[in-house]
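Appendix B, Record 12. Input sequence as logged:
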Amino acid sequence: MSLKSKWATSTFWTGLVMLGAMWFGLQLSKEHRIHWDASQGSQYSLSIPMQQILDEIEQSNQSLRIVVFESQSSRKDASIRNRFVQDLLDEMERSSSVVSSLRVDLDRDRSVAQELGVTQYGSMVVQFNEQSIVIPERKLFHHQVGNQEVRFIGESMLQNVLLAILHPVVQVVYTLEGNGEHSLFDGTYTGLSDFHALLQSQGLQVQKLDLLKVDEVPSDAAAVLVLEPQGSLSSIVQQRLLSFVQAGGRLWLASGESNPVVLDPIFVSPLNGVVSETEVQSGHWDYPILSIQSDTSLGQLKKEGRSVVFTRSTAFELLAAPQSGIHQTVFAKLRSQAWLERGPLDDIPHTFDPDQDWMGVASLVAGVEVTSASGLLKDDTDTSRVLIMGDGDWLSNGMFAEVPSNILFAQGLLDWLFEDEDVATARYRTPNRVLLTQPQLNSLRWILLIPLPLLISLWGFLSWRKRR
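Logged structural output:
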């Protein structure tokens, strides 16, 4: 054998040995969950708090299962969103032996979605300690107004969910009763048991409250819900609710009636009449489709073309001046073609009558943040929040079934009320732009291990033959 042949043979076998050693090292690192992150700031490694949470779960001898539903394929950024989530799950599975994941296509695996109670693309379901919590896609990503770039904050959101499960802090929400309000414990078409389930999924415990029998809202109340009482509340009840707000409490007021003791101090004025317009649900003149404001935290509903429907809603004006210390945010308002029907109410579609009806700028859903600068709050109280709307029937089981977007709207309003809507400060990752599926990675591995070394060897042999 010539010297060149010996060199070629030696090079070939050396290359094979090196590739084999690299492959063996990769398999060992995979088996023992060892990896190297050379990215800036180690953005592809789990945060220290998340690693501590996984260690705590592992020490408890329990398992964590995460089911991820793929983003809607029609989205332009669907592949990037899916890659964001998959990168995180791969990192979690690599870091802990108790973590397992399942990727699901909502269109093809409807049975899995129904079993887990998932109706939205891109949702993440966390199953741990006999609990199953659904995280919607909109909570996994952060959008900046005027910026199309999407930021993934799913690790921080998942971290908060796991912390809430491991170390639960129960927040109590009271629902007002004694004034003909809708019941959160009613499972009929007009009941609000599905809304009750939504509250529970947010970690809220619901209890009843009758302010005609007790002097004040209990001190453990995270919020009080007033869900469309029959008529205005008594002045005593209104005063007790106002005192709760002045002490920093959160109030959800769904009523089209006049409650001046509560509304006048925060500069909200109810308008007489029932909303009527041309764009309605199922041909009902009194089922108006809301005009969601895109500059609020609920604007994603509008961007996705989702319809939110109220039933026989009333409206109100927001009159707070900028310097009043009271900040009013409109979540939904009258459309330009809508008006308030003030004539006889029946099931016949109405037309605007300028002699008796009213048309103008008005709000249907708004959030009012009261600050210490308003002079309304008690000492040592910084802020309080009041959520106001002119309808409570849109939360019923029947409306949730007919208009699923109403559920998303309710969830978004809860986020605002409890100040969970802004997670911009959470840790986010830059997307991995190399979009390769696991089968593609497996194919690439075999190409690197077998055909590529053979091609290199063949090229060397042909070069040697040509030179000879």
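The chain has three domains: 1-39+449-468, 48-166, 171-417.
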